[in-house]
Amino acid sequence: QIQLVQSGPELKKPGETVKISCKASGYTFTNYGMNWVKQAPGKGLKWMGWINTYTGEPTYADDFKGRFAFSLETSASTAYLQINNLKNEDTATYFCARRNFAYWGQGTLVTVSA
Amino acid sequence: DIKMTQSPSSMYASLGERVTITCKASQDINSYLSWFQQKPGKSPKTLIYRANRLVDGVPSRFSGSGSGQDYSLTISSLEYEDMGIYYCLQYDEFPRTFGGGTKLEIK
């Protein structure tokens, strides 16, 4: 069965870097792009962008250009989200979701606190 | 960017009641609309895609309709397990955009 399994919760300080993983199984990884979605505590869903898992080309929503980076380890069917220079407002649960959002990871809570 | 206006933002309904949630896009999105249900601490669950296509395994009391700019999600007979927050999403254009959510609670 198709699964997206994300890495565990992270506690970071402002200015640090975090890298979240999303491991796919049950399908051919490179056939479907991967979206990333942010959900701040008590808030709605916000699309961050997506990465073409065949070419590796990322596309970022305007609010996520600069400190955010999507990458792949195709041999491991894994997508990554890296956030550099963390800020308090990056505290959120981050989800990966397969193309067209049919399948979602379980979410990774990132807490940024001094 | 396409703005998705979802309503109501919250509602109470009784068990067995028919419930309708709407989403209005700021432009025609060609039926590229999905509906999701999210429960506390869980990832969103896809209910409907392409405006009216029910995802396998989703109860038939859920249905989607609409075209152009206007879409709706209907629960024909509310059950307790339907409590949660519902979101619409347009995937006609980049950036993908979600509605603000509808919190559905049982009366």
Can you walk through the features of this model?
The complex is a heterodimer of chains A (114) and B (107). Helices cover 0% and strands 47% of the residues of chain A. Chain A has 114 residues and is mainly β. With 107 residues, chain B is an all-beta fold. The model of chain B has no long low-confidence stretch (mean pLDDT 97). Chain B contains no helices and eleven strands. Chain B has strands at residues 4-7, 10-13, 19-25, 33-38, 45-49, 53-54, 62-67, 70-75, 84-90, 97-98, 102-106. Chain B is globular, with a radius of gyration of 13 Å. The A-B interface holds A 35, 44-47, 49, 59, 61-62, 95, 97, 100-107 and B 34, 36, 38, 42-46, 49, 55, 87, 89, 91, 94-101.
Layout: helices, strands, pairs:
The complex is a heterodimer of chains A (114) and B (107).
Chain A: E1 3-6, E2 10-12, E3 18-25, E4 34-39, E5 46-51, E6 58-60, E7 68-73, E8 78-83, E9 92-98, E10 108-112
Parallel strand pairs in A: 2-10
Antiparallel strand pairs in A: 1-3, 3-8, 4-5, 4-9, 5-6, 7-8, 9-10
Chain B: E1 4-7, E2 10-13, E3 19-25, E4 33-38, E5 45-49, E6 53-54, E7 62-67, E8 70-75, E9 84-90, E10 97-98, E11 102-106
Question: Summary?
Answer:
Chain A is an all-beta fold and about 110 residues long. Chain A has strands at about 5, 10, 20-25, 35-40, 45-50, 60, 70-75, 80-85, 90-100, 110. By secondary structure, chain B is mainly beta.
- Structural class, from secondary structure content of chain A? mainly beta
Mean pLDDT over all positions of chain B: 97
Evaluate the radius of gyration of chain B. 13 Å
- Would you identify the regions of chain A where 5 or more consecutive residues have pLDDT less than 50? none
Low-confidence stretches of chain B: none
The largest contact between protein chains, plus residue counts on each side, is: A-B, 19 and 21 residues
